Amino acid sequence: MNQENLTEQGFKPAVAKYFSGKAYVKTLVATDEVTNCNVSDVYFEAGCHNNWHTHPSNQILLVKEGVCYYQEEGGPVQHVEAGGAINVLPGIRHWHGASPDAPMIHVAININAEKGVVNWMEPVSDNEYSNQNN
Predict the structure, then answer these.
(1) Can you tell me the distance from the alpha carbon of 31 to that of 39, in angstroms, rounded to the nearest whole number?
(2) Does residue 94 contact residue 54 with C-beta atoms inside 8 Å?
(3) Which helix (H) or strand (E) holds 7?
């Protein structure tokens, strides 16, 4: 998929300073006065991953395509294949992104949005991303 195809499907570029490569976001459900969560598709190009971050409330990730690399601070990098789910608990420092050889799409569900959505931190180092034995 290229940027033109993504744009045609409603994806917009993610905020570049929080990602190691190109990522795109498509809002599926926006937070409003009735719905206290947001739901988005997030496309990561091959090798792209986000910075370390936490969430004030749970974030649920549903992997739609590719393999999601996911790591909680102090733990190993997990490889979650399409069809898999990750429940990120509040305050857990973590990162996620695509494998080095293929793009990845996950659905991000941020619940209890009144608490905030994300607290961004520093980038993941190349060593952290590539060290599969953390």
Answers:
(1) 8
(2) yes
(3) helix 3-8
**How large is the C-alpha radius of gyration of the chain?**
14
Q: CB neighbours of 21 closer than 8 A, spacing ≥ 6?
A: 44, 45, 46, 47, 48, 49
3-state secondary structure of 62: strand
d(CA 61, CA 69): 11
Q: Is 95 left (phi over 0), alpha (psi -120 to 50) or beta?
A: beta
Query: Got the DSSP string for 71-94?
Result: EETTSPPEEEETT-EEEEPTT--E
Paired tokens of 16 = 């570049």
pTM for the model: 0.92
pLDDT at 45: 97
Q: Which residue has the higher pLDDT, 40 or 4?
A: 40
| Longest Cα–Cα distance in the chain | 44
Rounded Cα distance, 133 and 127, in Å:
11
Q: What type of residue is 97?
A: G
